Amino acid sequence: MTSVARQEHIAFQANLYSDPNPTRRSLHGTRREWVESAVSEFAKPGTKVLEVGVGCGIFTRFLSHSGAEVTAIDINPDFIHAVATLPNVTAHVRDATQPLDVEPQDVALSSEVLEHVPPDRSVAMLKAIRAALKPGAVFVLTTPQSYATMELMARLLRFPPVLALARKIYGSVDELGHINLLTAPALRRQLVEAGFTIEREARFGFYLPVIADFGGNVGQRVLVSVERAIRHIPVLRGLLWTQAYVLRAS
Fold it and tell me: To which H or E segment does residue 74 belong?
């Protein structure tokens, strides 16, 4: 029996980090490591941290253990219910494209959320986060790149013959639900409009079908080597999946 895995399911998101496929596990694991490393620089005991879009709660738990005072926001009640009892966490069901109604925060985190926001509300979400931050506060942000190879393959699944073939091969198909994919230049323009300056940025995560899906550990190592070779080449780094930023509230 075939199935479609969906982003709104907690189990789906949690399983991304333990996927049996080495490449897929590496894609999500690398992003997790980058986010946790970046946030650790600024989220200290007593620091006020805003997380916008908690998903399966993997970063909410990380922040909870840091001793920071965490305010968690998500539009999905199931996600909020799952983190509401964590120590040092106050959780709210809210639309992040509207005013967040929280006290001024020292740090904000939003990882793999912006791509799920309607394009005409993208800047509104960034402005809502900026309005919730103290001047000079830090914002850690990750989102996919518009022309990443992973996203290009996902777009092909919109065609019924391609979707049918994928289901036949894999048995299940991940529905990414990404409706707001931005190139790095387009995102930078939105960040400036929202009142942020870029302190640090990175690109990582390379996927190619067949090699990624059937190459096992060897395929994963090959793709990591390719990623390292292209991440500093202006045109080719647009093929990498994740764009990641450490930002300052102006």
Answer: strand 69-74
What's the token pair of residue 12? 């789906």
Residues 112 and 142: beta-carbon distance below 8 Å:
yes
Q: 3-249: which CATH architecture?
A: 3-Layer(aba) Sandwich (3.40)
Write the DSSP string, 116-161: GS-GGGHHHHHHHHHHTEEEEEEEEEEEEBTT-HHHHHHHHTTSHH
- Would you state the structure tokens that stand for residue 158, as one six-digit string? 């919109």
Closest CA to 38 of 13, 74, 65, 63: 63
Give, as one character, the DSSP assignment of residue 226. H
d(CA 36, CA 186): 25
Q: pTM of the full predicted structure?
A: 0.91
Q: From residue 230, how far is each of 1, 196, 219, 224 by CA, in Å? A: 39, 27, 17, 10
Give kind and range of the element (H or E) at residue 200.
strand 196-204
Instruction: Select from 94, 88, 102, 96 the least CA-distant residue to 134.
Output: 102
Domain layout of the chain by residue ranges: 3-249
Quick check: 51 and 70 in contact, CB under 8 A? Answer: yes
Q: Tell which residue, 92, 179, 185, has the closest CA to residue 132.
A: 92
Whether the predicted pLDDT of 3 surpasses 60: no
Q: Taking residues 163-177, report their average pLDDT.
A: 69
